[in-house]
Amino acid sequence: MRKSFTLLAAAAIAAGTAGAAQADLVVPNLSYRTGPFAAGGIPYADGFQDYFTLLNERDGGIGGEKVQTPECETAYNTEKGVECYEATKGMGALVYNPLSTGITYQLIPKMQADGITLYTPGYGRTSAANGKVFEWVFNYPANYWDGASVAVKYLLDQNGGSLDGKKIALLYHNSAYGKEPIRTLEELSKKHGFTLSTLPIDSPGQEQKSQWLQVRREKPDFVIFYGWGVMNSVAIQEAANIRFPMENFIGIWWSGSENDVQAAGAGAHGYKSLTMHGVGADYPVYADLKQYVHDAGKAAGDGSNAGTVLYSRGMYAAMVIAEAIRKAQELAGTSAVNAAQVRDGFEALEITEARMAELGLPDFGQPFAASCEDHGGPGMARLQQWDATAQKWTLISDWISPDDEVLAPLVAEDSAAYAAEAGLTQRCN
Amino acid sequence: MLYREAGEFKTSYAQDSQTFPIWWDRLWYQVALVVGFAILPFVINDYWANAVVVPFLIYAIAAIGLNILTGFCGQVSLGTGGFMAVGAYAVYKLMTAFPEVSVVIHVILAGGITAAVGVLFGLPSLRIKGFYLAVATLAAQFFLVWLFNKVPWFYNYSASGQITAPERTVLGIAVTGANTPAWAKYLICAVFLFVLAWIARNLTRGTIGRKWMAIRDMDIAAEIIGVNPLTTKLSAFAVSSFFIGIAGALFFAVYLGAAEVGEAFGIQKSFLILFMIIIGGLGSIFGSFAGAAFLVLLPVFLKNVLVGALGWPSDLAAHIELMIVGGLIIAFLIVEPHGLAQLWRVLKEKLRLWPFPH
């Protein structure tokens, strides 16, 4: 039994890899369209895929090289993520964007050893922002700790500059992802004098009655929320059920998509979340996407997600990757770049407002420039608020920068711990 | 015609009591050893090691462990994931606290620590049986996962609660960490599996295994004929947890490299391993291998066929894969409720008579 399976599997893999071997630029799309996190995974993967399709269709690829995005289903599961990574890395993969903090932690040492870039915008290991330690990992434009700090800064702003004596509860996905901001928030609570309570929700988070009971009992002034997948809509529904004032409920950027708020109907009105890019479909790039991708019948998935928050984010990630590859081509003087050259492209990348406008995304994301030391970007974010009557997100703040005074030592400390554990010497000296 | 004992004469007790009394079985066993230790290490690549073979070997160890407890001793356990977590966190703490000691010793010690924890959670089995015991072990599962999430000491106070395996070597070759060659990864797991399976096989056909089976078949009758339920049940918990702890340690240190308790060792892992032994065959070492192979290889195989060869969208393939695996599990259990091991036994009987059945 085992033998025949093995033989058949060998034949299948041989057939599978033969089909994708002659690719030009390979950017594997480790996506999840199944499981409890599919609500977030599907639009993100669609946006990611569609942007590369657009480049292939409109411009003939990047610098004349077509981009292939072989898709592999991880179901947000680390074991499947490893399998996907191993299955795709042999195709000449240039960069990975797994959209899962758990998988990211798994891949960081592996990709360092294999020499492939890991790009984790807005998620992953926060201290990877320190390029001195994490040579192959990039997480600009913003990371989890930036998010926590921006949320607190916004609250400071709303409360006349002081959070003294206020109570803030962190409601989080009980995993590496949700635990990331705890240390930052602890530091910030010391600095600003608010009390912090942490309420973990076990994955996948369909059951949160006890946590919301605790919210009712403790009566925090504000709830900061680090959720993902099905737990987002459950949390917003529960908050609506206990009549928690929605304007005091702030989600990280992974807890602020249409899928998360629509289920709660009018109850979700006023819910706020961070975002690291603009919202809506009023950007020129969407006209091109419609013309070259959606109307041409080449859209990924069912094509219904264009313009949603997470679709835009997947597209934004793809845009940064495409720009990094372009930069790499420029630096290497060849269009057929390899993984090491792409890493150099990431490190030399500079995204300006003018360039964003040229790409059809004016006033969409923050400008940033990477360097050998800085793989994390400025880490700014804006706030958006859900309007349940108009069924759309509106931006309610300008770009807010995080409190680097608090974050920089934390990043240095955590990355130094990693360097010591992994026996790495610091670069960029 | 195949698998016949006719003509095989045993002239000593040693020959009569060997593990594989039939020549054909011995042949398969020897072929498997030659392929496993002399050929595979030279041909295995990263994909095969990381995605297929290493998880299979580790799950086989865990399945043998659970099979000792559930299949041989009749104590249902839903705590496998939790016990694997004990092994993983034990090996992590040992690896980081004593970097100069060989990782092989750490893995074995992690098994020992898990055995102690297993005995502790096995104590209720002296008073409760069946479903009630299953619930008690379920409590162990949730308690252990909660503990490793809650107490930062277990994950060395890392910001995210993730544990990451540092690089450790055996005879100068990395076996954990990112620079491990595929063959080293494979070989360390294969050696552990071989030794443990050999121990399990010999334990289960000796005195202690017979005691376990006596307790499984009827505990009151066993007690009357002089089997001590306390030592028997607790020894089953200890040996089973030892195996599961080693599986957990290898799962974290060699296979994943980084882990998070809720995701890697959650309740679904307990169920997965329980399904392995039910599908493979309760009370059979071969069944543990067959069940692990079935549940590890089949999804990977289906994925490669549906997405790789047929070019289906990955989400459709993932859904169809769940349906096919589920359907096959039901089909197999309807055809043969005693699992793949029994299927193999029936097949052997048929092969003996082939081509002249009665």
UniProtKB/TrEMBL annotation, chain A:
UniProt cross-references to Gene3D superfamilies, sorted A to Z: 3.40.50.2300
CDD domains membership: PBP1_ABC_ligand_binding-like (cd06334)
Residues covered by the Leucine-binding protein domain: 27-388
Superkingdom of origin organism: Bacteria
InterPro entries: Leu-bd, Peripla_BP_I
Keyword Signal set for record: yes
Keyword Signal annotated: yes
Residues making up the signal peptide according to the UniProt record: 1-23
Keywords: Signal
Entry similarity comment: Belongs to the leucine-binding protein family.
Protein name per its UniProtKB record: Amino acid/amide ABC transporter substrate-binding protein (HAAT family)
Natural source organism: Cereibacter ovatus
Automatic annotation (TrEMBL), chain B:
Source organism of the structure: Cereibacter ovatus
Membrane topology: Multi-pass membrane protein
Protein name: Amino acid/amide ABC transporter membrane protein 2 (HAAT family)
CDD domains: TM_PBP1_LivM_like
Keywords: Cell membrane, Membrane, Transmembrane, Transmembrane helix
PANTHER family, per the entry: ABC TRANSPORTER PERMEASE PROTEIN, HIGH-AFFINITY BRANCHED-CHAIN AMINO ACID TRANSPORT SYSTEM PERMEASE
Stored InterPro entries: ABC_transp_permease, LivM-like
GO cellular component: plasma membrane
Compartment annotation: Cell membrane
One annotated GO molecular function: branched-chain amino acid transmembrane transporter activity
Stretches assigned to coiled coil: none
Cross-referenced Pfam families: BPD_transp_2
Principal subcellular localization: membrane
TM regions (residue ranges): 27-44, 50-69, 101-123, 130-148, 183-200, 236-259, 271-296, 316-335
